Amino acid sequence: MTQTPAPWGTTRMGPYVESGPIPALATVIDPETQIAVIVDEHGRTVELGAHGTSTNTSTPTNTGGGDGQGGGQNAPTDMDSMPANDQDQGTG
CA 29, 32, 34, 38 torsion: positive or negative? Predict the structure, then answer.
């Protein structure tokens, strides 16, 4: 009976590097702005970096009709969509 070798990726694995303690954080609502704020164990606001916004839209496209189809009276023979993803970079 032959033994199957371990997959290549598993032969390259190793233990994670030891990390330090993670500080305690809490999410609270600012009573004036009604926005979530992250605070540390000393009550100081923690900045987590800039986060932007994005929108996803899908514009339908269709094909068919062709020459001699009478001005588009027939249903399209093929339908597709063109996805778009607009990214807005946040300020930080």
Answer: negative
